[in-house]
Amino acid sequence: MTDNKKGISRRVFINRSAAMTGGAVLLTHAGSWPAWAEVSAAEGVRSKMGRLAVDGQTGRVWLAKLKIDISTEDLDTEWGPTRVTQSIDSVEVSVKDGKKFDEPADVSGGQPDAKLAPEIAAAGGKVCVVWCGCHPETRQWRVYAAYYDGRSWSSPMEVAGGARPALTPRVAIDPDNGKAWVAYEDWADHSIKLRSYDGSSWNDHGSVCQTGQNYRPRLVVTKRAGKHKGKVAIVWDSYRDLQYDIYMRMVGPGGAMGEEMRVTKCARWDSMADVLEDLDGNIWVAWVRASNELSEFSAMRSVHTKFFDGEKWLFPRQPKKLYNPSEYVTANIAGMGSDTHEELHPVLRGEGREKGDGRVSFYSVAWAPTLQVDKRNRVYVFFMEGDPIIFAMWRHLDYRYYEGDKWSDPKRIKLGRGANIAKLMFGQSTVVAGDTIHAVWDQNDPREGPVMAHAEKVKIRDLMGPMTHPKGQDLPETMYDGWKVRDTFKPPRQTKINGETHTLIYGDTHVHSWSSDGADPSDYYYNFARDFAKLDFFALSDHDMLIANVPGLEAYISFLPKVFSEPDFVCFQAYEFTSQTRGHRCVVFEGDDRPIINMFAFLYPKEKRTNTNGMLYSFMHKFGLSPDSRVMVTAHNMFNLGNDFSEYDESMEPLYDVMSQHVAAEKTLDEYVADGVLDGGATRGITSFMTVMQRMAGDDITRDYDHKWFHCWREALGNALPLGAYGGSDTHAVSGLGWITAGLWVREKTRKSIFDSMFERKSIAIDNQARNEDVFNLFPFLESRIKDLPVRRMDVRFWVDDHFMGSRPSINSVPVAKAYAQSQDKYDPVSRIVFVKDGREMFAERNLTPSGDGFEARWKDDSWSTGRHYYYVRIEFESGDQGYSSPVFVNY
């Protein structure tokens, strides 16, 4: 679909004329807060990525945000009706000089670029807004800025980018002369670059970092009369020597560079830094530290702080209250609770609390810290916090302030626990103006879809009295173990298939980052998957309802696989089709810059409808496919919820996610319970909870076998669906990568060859007992139980006669099945090979025959009869880990 009208918005979505307009967002400030933006769930105007700035000289509060104008159109295709989303976006700025914000101004000037990450700074009556944009045709990323001189806004100015991709800009303004300083990521050499604007021209100041891959700069202009004499302090996180740390550099008013300082030295990963100068001239830094324990529901991510007094780095005193035992330890939701109590762990009793790491949050998932200082010199750290049980679904906006030599107890700017169910919060921005806290964030409301919320809390505390003076502790930094590199087969496993040499590779195409509901920034996953999980292929597959309809975010998600792909590390663009009523599916693209269908987790309330799998297939056939670009879809089963296969399209869906960190979906939950493998308690509780979420969607679909609603792989195979075995972790934390993966036998390690093997079903699904530990590990201090479990790499090969797994031969005589298996871990050998035919376990061989460095087993099907059959093997190891071959589909 094309649109020849002037002003196309971008290439990722179906193009739309900029002349078309929609309704307006209304931010209300009624008696209670937060106040939700009034939008339609399917179309209309939305505000996202709100960012605040306060001008200390004028007292004005400025708000920059993305405005996204969305419309939809129903198209009839040969695959059925398809709802297509069309969107345009702009950067808007409004100011509050009294009780409410004025009418927003569009500072992006109608540019067609897909926009992302607006940031704003204000000082001395001057304001500067920066953002990054991706051109819809050239796919080049640029940084733009608009400057307000106290009277009017400038036209958008190109700051950097083009042939050298530039992203994630940040801005600060010198209150003495109005100069705007802009730092950004230069993806051509992975550096942080710095430029300044004096109101008439731009000046280059070069790179502020010495080496490494560098991300997420933040900066502040210090006071001319203070100890740093108007220097610009820039912080960022840098990936060097296989870990992320925070670095800082001071730049003089004229651009003279000081020495690069390493702020953190921890083997755990530090990122998402913010920077602030307090009234005494101390430079404060706050950041997020990622735990290196394997974790899913309790993926620890903590906020830390320290400050630089001009000579050395100091830690503020540790807060007395780092957790809430009644909330975190005795939590009980949807049958997932526990009788675990505080006395089970000394840290929760206050014993052995770590010193020298500056943390202000504990045993939770925390992100996006921002620093503020008030007129009494109290330093505030605001951060998003997720409950440790289901951090992806319950989130809060919390803060502490540092006064004198101590932190306040944690305070919350969000509604209570019960009101937060399924309302995901993202990307908060908070400022303190006088005695008022202003906050904005993105929120995904099940009733309305993605919206931006705005909150105020008036009179936080009397500001009269003497100024406080922060003190600190000169302590050695608390050190931790680093990430453990996953083992791989050396040399790689190879075999002949139909006379061609194939190599066994491993990958994960089901992973969630901070861009949707994961715990870590997107770049974390690529670096970790390549360097620690040692994967051969990889795809980030964030949820559609959180990335769709945001042009810049879609463009960013499609940009990352291109820049991280290497000959030995093949990356794909992907996303998760999140239909609560029809089942989730991962969609992986062979080509670049592919469009996604607009989906929400819940139905459109006014229309009583939800997108279906047929609409997904229809959309992909019409817009996602090209002669050199295939689309691969896999059904993702969560906690025995199942998937709708009534509109199954074999041309896109060759594989099934037999394995994820949620469940081994070879059988149904009831079968596992009957076999004594699971007690089913916790899984039933989670399944019941998720089922309630399905029912909220209101779809009348019947979820039973007769209507092709299948709860496991065997049910789908029993309905003659030729689905190969596949695995995807569905991890929401980078530390879960490399535990649950898929294996592929490929001719070579290229996108085309990998997709060839996916559609030829030359695949295996890899189970790991870490899955059971992980799903039921509801409390973070129990993480040590699972960190030493071995990561599974297995070699599985399966033939029926001479036909390799995944094939669809015609056989007219009694067949012989043969399997080969090898464990990478010599301490965890293969214990049993189980042959399965048509859903029945026909033969289990324990007396395995050595073959090379592995084992093999054979079975002759004496019960053979003509007709359609499928065969596969399950490989069992001493530890309980398992592997599944794809079936051989006979007479299909």
Structural overview:
The chain has 892 residues and is mainly β. Helices cover 10% and strands 39% of the residues. The chain contains ten helices and 51 strands. The chain has a 15-stranded mixed β-sheet that branches. Strands 22, 23, 24, 25 and 26 form a five-stranded antiparallel β-sheet that branches. β33 and β34 form a beta hairpin. The protein is elongated, with a radius of gyration of 28 Å. The N terminus is likely disordered.
Query: Low-confidence spans: pLDDT under 50, at least 5 residues?
Result: 1-41, 324-352, 600-606, 777-786
Number of β-strand runs? 51
How far is it from the N-terminal to the C-terminal residue, by CA?
A: 37 Å
**Average of per-residue pLDDT values:** 83
The largest sheet is: 15 strands, mixed
Secondary-structure content class: mainly beta
Q: How much β-strand is present in the residues? A: 35-45%
Whole-angstrom Rg: 28 Å
The helical percent reads: under 10%
| Count of DSSP H/I helices | 10
The backbone outline, from C-alpha atoms, is elongated
